[in-house]
Automatic annotation (TrEMBL):
Pfam families in UniProt: Catalase
Function, as annotated: Has an organic peroxide-dependent peroxidase activity.
GO cellular component: cytoplasm
Active site: 50
Protein name stated in the entry: Catalase-related peroxidase
SUPFAM superfamilies cross-referenced by the UniProt entry: Heme-dependent catalase-like (SSF56634)
Cleavable signal peptide: 1-23
E.C. number(s) listed in UniProt: 1.11.1.-
The organism of origin for this protein: Hyphomicrobium facile
Binding positions (heme): 316
Gene Ontology terms for molecular function: catalase activity; heme binding; metal ion binding
Length: 328
């Protein structure tokens, strides 16, 4: 059975979607955002994906180990770095229920570097994406758009890497809070330190209080938007904190495929610092700019051959321009 939950899970980390009727067309930002609107409906003035979200603020304090890996300023700061963040549910439904197991949670962040400059970090609650490149993602979404079980089944049989995200999410409890779930960067980055040494890595943020989940039955009894009051109560007791880490890559680890799972239990992780979410922020603050995964600074490089990576930035720009346009 093809459920709405399956469709949402497929769109979970996405900012792109099904193209309008163009046979054999390659994926591009404009048509992909059009198609995302076609799946979840047009919702003027809001994001095309990760639509349901909460704007927050806080700070980042780098660890003493971080400068050995990178010369990036936010990892070398002697004072806390301001953070504007946004928790969200995947997909383009502005009312996406918080209890949905097979939908990713996300956190996107601007790190304030001063003088109007910032760098961004986007993480989701799964270590993998659903497609290795835009064209594969296009094929997946085109199949799902048909709502034809046979066509969808045939796609997954031919493209088993597209099943990894949903399998990962379904094997775990529903997160009890935005503050009690692990978050990953699905792309491989490269650090460069002051001595010019390079290191491939992936980001992971771990909640300081540990992961906490709830059962499927508990989730069904919750209000669809229970994360917001839960976060309010949690913040009243103190900051929501995460240890940001770098999972260090080794020779042979794929750097161009966001569906590929690195074996974390066999990889060294380095503490990069502590993210502290301290309060809610005006939603306009999150909406006035783009959280762009390609917005990196000297000392951090994005993946050179991961074609999903630049497409996300392009699609975010399309979505941003549309939500800024005067509403009819």
């Amino acid at each position: 059975m093809v459920s709405n939950r399956l469709v949402t899970a497929i769109f979970a980390a996405a900012v792109i979607s099904i193209p309008t009727a163009r046979a054999h067309a390659e994926a591009d930002a404009e048509t992909l955002v059009n198609a995302l609107n076609a799946v979840f409906g047009k919702h003027p003035g809001v994001r095309a994906a990760h639509t349901h979200g909460i704007c927050v603020k806080g700070n980042f304090v780098p660890s003493t180990e971080a400068p050995s890996l990178t010369k990036a300023p936010h990892f070398n700061s002697k004072t806390p770095v301001g953070v504007i963040g946004r928790f969200s549910m995947g997909g383009g439904d502005p009312d996406a229920p918080n209890g949905q197991k097979d939908n990713v949670r996300g956190i996107a962040m601007h790190f304030d570097l001063g003088k109007g400059n910032n760098t961004d970090l986007l993480l989701i609650s799964a270590p993998v994406f659903v497609a290795k490149d835009p064209d594969q993602f296009l094929k997946l979404l085109t199949a799902v758009a048909t709502k034809d079980k046979d066509k969808i089944g045939a796609y997954f049989k031919e493209n088993p890497n597209s099943t990894r995200q949903a399998e990962f999410l379904n094997a775990r409890p529903v997160p009890a809070s935005y503050g009690t779930v692990d978050y990953w960067g699905v792309h491989a980055f490269t650090f460069t330190n002051a001595d010019g040494k390079k290191q491939n890595f992936k980001y992971k943020a771990l909640p300081v209080g540990g992961e906490v989940g709830i059962s499927d039955d508990e989730a069904k009894k919750k209000d669809p938007d229970f994360y917001r009051p839960e976060l309010k109560d949690r913040l009243a007791k103190g900051p929501v904190q995460y240890t940001l880490t770098a999972i260090l890559g080794e020779d042979g680890d794929p750097l161009d495929d966001p569906t590929a799972l690195w074996p974390e239990d066999k990889r060294k992780s380095v503490n990069l610092g502590t993210i502290s979410i301290t309060d809610f922020e005006d939603p306009k603050t999150c909406d006035e700019a783009i959280f762009d995964p390609t917005n990196v600074v000297d000392g951090v490089e994005g993946p050179a051959n991961d074609t999903i990576f630049p497409m996300r930035s392009q699609a975010y720009a399309v979505s941003f321009s549309r939500r800024q346009a005067p509403q009819q």
